[in-house]
């Protein structure tokens, strides 16, 4: 009889847990949809017309990103207080993709890396762990590193589009990023992403080397080539 009573209580707890998990997953799905839409728009930058219209592609993405803070707010309401890291695995991949998109847009518009605080703010999040729902530093670092692959692709596709200056700019940015991340002595997952950055830099350097051999090095890139 005692066992039956106990399991009746367990059943209620399991139902409650299942409901919380399903609510979290539904909120994450909305975030994923927006992330997918933004990445679909960003993909346009790799064709010739896209390279010539990077600013309008960025503007389209910024419009889409404007809906993200409300989606994180909805997700935050579904995650029980104090249990951020218990549910973190449900949305960390999506968060990293949104960080990458935000950093890529900032780079394309302003030729700089958006810092942790700025990215968090644009996603409607804070950076302080003690406040509960926040932009985890590792999610920021992993998201940032993943833009290197897209930039290496852009360097190659820029040449096809006749934009010979861009690969030199990308090379300098990736070199700066590489130098910065080297200071962290990256391990585990960060190490894998750091290796991707090294590979992206190598690919970009090959593009730049070939352009230099063909005498297509822009005048203002003398110091960065």
From TrEMBL:
DNA-binding protein that specifically recognizes consensus sequences at the breakpoint junctions in chromosomal translocations, mostly involving immunoglobulin (Ig)/T-cell receptor gene segments. Seems to recognize single-stranded DNA ends generated by staggered breaks occurring at recombination hot spots. Exhibits both single-stranded and double-stranded endoribonuclease activity. May act as an activator of RNA-induced silencing complex (RISC) by facilitating endonucleolytic cleavage of the siRNA passenger strand. One of its GO terms (biological process) is RNA metabolic process. Pfam families: Translin. Its main location: cytoplasm. This is Translin. Belongs to the translin family. It is found in: Cytoplasm; Nucleus. It comes from Penaeus vannamei (Whiteleg shrimp). InterPro entries: Translin (IPR033956), Translin_C (IPR016069), Translin_fam (IPR002848), Translin_N (IPR016068), Translin_sf (IPR036081). Ring-shaped heterooctamer of six TSN and two TSNAX subunits, DNA/RNA binding occurs inside the ring.
